[in-house]
Fold this sequence. Notes:
- By secondary structure, this protein is an alpha/beta fold.
- The model has no long low-confidence stretch (mean pLDDT 94).
- The protein is globular and about 50 Å long.
- The strands form three sheets. It has a six-stranded parallel β-sheet with strand order 4-6-7-8-9-10. The chain has a three-stranded parallel β-sheet with strand order 2-3-5, with helices on one face.
- The protein has one domain (8-253): Metal-dependent hydrolases (TIM Barrel, Alpha-Beta Barrel).
- The chain has helices at 36-48, 69-85, 102-110, 134-143, 165-172, 181-184, 190-201, 215-223, 228-244, 247-250; strands at residues 8-10, 19-20, 53-56, 59-60, 91-94, 97-99, 120-124, 147-151, 176-180, 207-209, 225-227.
- Its EC number is 3.1.3.48.
- Belongs to the metallo-dependent hydrolases superfamily. CpsB/CapC family.
Amino acid sequence: xxxxxxxxxxxxxxxxxxxxxxxxxxxxxxxxxxxxxxxxxxxxxxxxxxxxxxxxxxxxxxxxxxxxxxxxxxxxxxxxxxxxxxxxxxxxxxxxxxxxxxxxxxxxxxxxxxxxxxxxxxxxxxxxxxxxxxxxxxxxxxxxxxxxxxxxxxxxxxxxxxxxxxxxxxxxxxxxxxxxxxxxxxxxxxxxxxxxxxxxxxxxxxxxxxxxxxxxxxxxxxxxxxxxxxxxxxxxxxxxxxxxxxxxxxxxxx
Length: 254
């Protein structure tokens, strides 16, 4: 007999040993942690979930957060020194979340991008509309031997459709998809939650990340639940993220 009271599973219980590949924990360089104290509070929240390894991904967004490898390295060094003084054993590698715009194309021609691992680079786009030259950007990324990892594809409302054809097109153009775990908890709204699970059901999601900016995101994550069926869809992606960005595979080289 069908029951409306299906057993729920806490998402955080599945994240022990997880490497968070999308977050904004570095202090004072974007819309994430404003200072080292806030960074530490975020990291302590992650520790309660069993997460102690991070690839930090501050925004590189020309008009708002014109970060550089130098400014990011400085913020990381500041945080690592503070964590060391507190006796915290936390692993942090730096990468970035690049806004795909004209400035990004110019950057691509001038310098080496900060990657999640090897040639995997985290990219995003405006929530209002895709870049008019999106296909050109993806082509140039791959011509330069990068593999684009699209951050939170479920959050781009202009891609939502019954057929998922726009997502399929991005896949044929070589995009990997990184889902925000908070989307599964309905944090960004019902339509985004629905698309997130549809992408999972269609095996289109490659990696997971938290995209944590502030404590309230961790508070939401700590109470988020999924059904058994949803968990079965999630576990392979959780494991793939762990394996791809494992301590031995990433941090030993940083």
